[in-house]
Amino acid sequence: MVLDKAPGKPIGTLKSFLQALTGSQALVLLLDGVTDPHNLGAVLRSADQFAVDLVVVPERRAAHETETVARVSAGANVYVPMIAVPNLASVVADLKASEFWIYGAAAEGKSAGSLDLRGRTALLLGSEGRGLGRLLRERCDELVAIPTRGHVDSFNVSVAAGILMYEARRQQWG
Questions:
Q1: Considering the entire predicted model, what is its pTM?
Q2: Residue-averaged pLDDT of the chain
């Protein structure tokens, strides 16, 4: 892994993260429009368990670290590097330039188990109500879905993130 995830250690900028990144395996989460601090906290808790290298959220129209996020994450927020950026589309471009594949979560995507999620992988998840924004969806290398057979049309974003993180790490860690 790339960054010292010790409590309180700032991660700096996306540029410094990418410069410090070594190795061929990495996992980054991008959250587009996730505004509920409970969802963000739950995502961070799973992100800690799956040793996610970085979580990226937009500066506007998104949940950020709060007491609620810290409580729901069970303290994982201290260990998971997270940055807020003005523009997620720019982050996608920077990640692609650093040899990341961008997988956007969408119901019409290919099954997560059928995709090769090894290597430098970024998972992009949208808000529960709106999903991924059009611009970000268009910039994905592939859309990824979680096969389901239930009656409701989607997972909670934190549950979907956990399932996709698991599949990526299962493939990366062997």
A1: 0.93
A2: 92
